Amino acid sequence: xxxxxxxxxxxxxxxxxxxxxxxLGYKMKEKMPATARLFSADRKxxxxxxxxxxxxxxxxxxxxxSLADAAIEEMLNHLDPxxxxxxxxxxxxxxxxxxxxxxxxxxxxxxxxxxxxxxTVLKGGPSExxxxxxGDKFLKIADSAVAGNKIDAEAxxxxxxxxxxxxxxxxxxxxxxxxxxxxxxxxxxxxxxxAGYMIAPGxxxxxxxxxxxxxxxxxxxxxxxxxxxxxxKLILDLRGNGGGILQESVEIADEFLDDNKLIVYTQGSHxxxxxxxxxxxxxxxxxxxxxxxxxxxxxxxxxxxGALQDWDRAEVIGRRTFGxxxxxxxxxxxxxxxxxxTIARYxxxxxxxxxxxxxxxxxxYNEDLYNRYHNGAMINADSNKLVTEQIYHTAKxxxxxxxxxxxxxxxxxxxxxxxSNKIARLYARNTIGNFVYRYxxxxxxxxxxxxxxxxxxKDFNINKPIWDAFFTFASQDSVSVNALPDADKLYIERRLKxxxxxxxxxxxxxxxxxNVNDPMVMKALEILEK
Length: 530
What we know:
CATH superfamily of the largest domain: 2-enoyl-CoA Hydratase, Chain A, domain 1
Helix content: 40-55%
Strand content: 15-25%
Number of domains: 4
Number of helices: 19
């Protein structure tokens, strides 16, 4: 009976105790100094307090969002060069690049004389299915007139991109004819594989421009086709590849390395050591392999190159890589922006740190490539070497260095023959690209006679009529190409030829034609023949 009475009163007793505790806690909170409320929900950091005061009391009207962004960026400037704040306005495009796709209509465009011109149309994409062609000019997008109204490229992208399955109506000018099209937007791939083809009997060539979510898949598709064509040796071109998703480079390394070989490991003050190893039979574990790198090869590119070099699996040709060996993790913030924070370092299988020093400040760090160029590191093999005490040896006795990128086994100097003042002005004004596009669309019937890049490389040359047309076009662009040195003229002719091939076959055509005279590719072929 007594127990039953206790059960009856227990809920009431608990309620009284809870209310009393809440009351006492509230009275204690009242008497606590504000600075002691360490876990108070309404406690603000100093940065937020300052921003609030500026917002409420400053003499002029201020956009506090931009102030907050600037404050965050200044904080990150005191960390490492690769911890960055990504505003919400930039985040979508950055994420699309890593994802390897976006939703749009599938064209490349440029704006000439305040008119949007279609440069290329993605094969099999929404615009090709709707009937657009290279050379078409935009008059209207939806209900907005876009010709002659000073529109910029970002505004055009905003109008053309949209959810897959949605439609956009456009009015185009083709020659003298006005045409209307309805385009159903779709998934547009951002390819990370620029080219994959047989560059010589038994020798394949693959070029990767980044490591996105689709890179391994693209790589496997390309190398499978090359194997079916008789692949025995491979040139893997990672020049200018600034990296991307680590796992994609690890997956590709696994295709070249056997057993349980270590590919890379990461470690940080708050991150335990994590190893990435080969875990399956690879598609190309035995054939001869050359990797091409330069000062633009960074991060995931250096991870892949470092693993293949440490295990004596590949000959590395080119120039010392960028030297980015820091691991970033991206965190979403409440306002739609993101923080990409460095959490660890990459280390090659031998324990080499890829990261170059940044203890002299971000400005000095950012000027490294500029200094390399002016100090002769781009053209002199000895200047290209690292001055470091981090020395390693491979199983076969090869001497390697750590602490500042990947130093190649064989140095190939930068080709500086084409960087004269006049050619620099042609690039600054995009004179070569603008000429190629306009000449191409005005001579489509002629160019359509060439069916493959290899046929084009063999049979097409920059003859006198094309050169004369370029001379006139450049003169109108305030660049005289009269009385050029032979080396400059040859450089321009080769560039024009490669750009015409790109206009017809996109990047695959460009590299297949350009590689014929590329010094680094020529050196790779020489090494593979030995």
